[in-house]
Amino acid sequence: MVDLVGQYEKIKEEVKKEVEEVLDSSAFINGPAVHDFQSNLEKYLHVKNVVPCANGTDALQVIMMAYDFPKGAEVLVPSYTYVATVEVIALLGLKPVFVEVYPDTFNIDIEDLEAKISDKSVAVVPVHLYGQCADMERILKVAKNHDLKVFEDTAQAIGAQFTFSDGRIAKAGTMGDAGATSFFPSKNLGAYGDGGAIMTNDDDLAAKLRMIVNHGQSKRYYHDSIGVNSRLDSIQAAILKVKLKYLDGYNEARYRVAQKYSQAFSKVGWITTPVESDFSTHVYHQYTLKLADGVDRNGLVEHLAEKEVPSMIYYPVPNHLQRAYSYFGYKAGDMPNTEDLCSRVISLPIHTEMSEEQQNTIIEQVLSFR
pLDDT tens digits for 170-188? Predict the structure, then answer.
């Protein structure tokens, strides 16, 4: 689905140089590379504070730990997302309240969000799924009206830009009270191992987040809060420092691939191509098609596999129907849009190194299925 080897070949010497500097310094934890990357990412995102951490899941968890919500408080979250967004809510003894998504953009449904707010609601986690922003202007308005915190999950959309109705532009992850992202290797900005970061314009919150990711200590051996051990190591930061310089180019390359796919499939009756929102750019972490009723998705997956074309289903089971969350009492039919998408979506390979020949082969094999 991604070509990390090909991508590495183009930046190999830069990566080697940065990694060797870390090895020579032996500053493996919280070294200069971490601080340099943090500063560079703050400048790129135009955000006051970036707090590096060990992975994207930790990023979401640490944000919620910082607010110390009471047990049983409700956090609104789309059911159509990777499980990490939900599991941190349950892990902290909070209650995920699952929200529908729009069937075209796959992002959180604002009307359903507002309908599910209760007197126990404390926060909403909009997920910028597949690479474009949810409707943050409306989400922020709803959150303000109901006194909710907003935590953006931007693991799939780093570099995407949201345009407000007044013309103001902001990067994904910088609009809410805090944002979380992942540097898992396959992400648009991926490390060569795990990594993550939290973004916020709130200096007081940032100070608390920095304590929590480092065992809750403001200075060594003095612990002001319950914390965790969640740090981005220096080698990963060194690699990310190099790759950040190329992120816009990576996103542009993915966009070109997506446009060629959409052009090829635009008049195919059994395929619906991705819909791009007017208010957001799309960085295409995934290129996800929606198949028409009656199309054998498993058959298409098998057909492509036989032709050595990879594909993936993100995601086959909605979170509200996962066994792990059955104790919340959701049942089939509770979220028709989400359940329908889970039965019909399929994602094709998309990455920065895709050649025209490779993409032509993928398109040809998809079209030859019917």
Answer: 999 999 999 999 999 999 9
